[in-house]
Design a protein that fits this description.
The chain is an alpha+beta fold. The chain contains 5 helices and 4 strands.
Length: 186
């Protein structure tokens, strides 16, 4: 006996969409069990960060030693190296930030490597990136189906999968209540 066409369609679409539904669920669980303040690295800050040196209008960069000193004063981290970032990099930890930036590689008390991004003119800490942030960023990319930049929540693939997931859910509900008189259910 032939199966109902909606049942066949639902079955194969469900198989395809289930992988993304699983990723949405896993990433959603990760988001709900992790405080965003810890993801942002706020636990490493001693005091709120405000510009401590020049303003951007002065266009005089603080030197690497001053950058490390600010990290020592404003965080619980131990700065190790400083490098300047002048070029944007697709999908980077500092994406969306105004360049140039100082990237100060630091260590936490537990030995974890932490990257601190700092405005080279004002000394302001603009981002702190840890392993926890990197996992969150990966989960976010999987969640919004933007695996490279991890910024575009307006992408076509996400919209298509969302509607397919909605169709699968609705057709599953219909099929749950629909009884095919010729179908033997086990």
């Amino acid at each position: 006996m032939a199966k109902h066409p909606l049942r066949q369609l639902h079955r194969y679409i469900s198989l395809i969409i289930s992988v993304q539904l699983l990723l949405w669920t896993i990433s959603g669980i990760y988001f709900s069990f992790n405080k965003i303040e810890n993801i942002r690295g706020e636990q490493y800050l001693i005091a709120p960060t405000k510009p401590v040196a020049n303003t951007s209008l002065d266009l005089i960069k603080i030197d690497f030693d001053q950058a490390k000193e600010i990290i020592n004063k404003k965080t619980t981290l131990i700065p190790i190296t400083v490098e300047i970032i002048n070029e944007p990099k697709r999908g980077s930890e500092f994406r969306g930030r105004e360049l140039p930036l100082y990237k100060i590689t630091s260590t936490a008390e537990n030995g974890q490597k932490i990257n601190v991004y700092q405005n080279p003119y004002s000394g302001e800490i603009v981002a702190i990136r840890s392993a926890q942030w990197r996992v969150w960023d990966l989960m976010w990319g999987l969640h919004i189906m933007d695996w490279v930049d991890r910024d575009n929540i307006d992408n076509l693939l996400l919209k298509i999968f969302s509607f397919v997931a909605l169709f699968t859910s609705i057709s599953g509900l219909i099929l749950f209540f629909y009884k095919d008189k010729n179908q033997n259910y086990v």
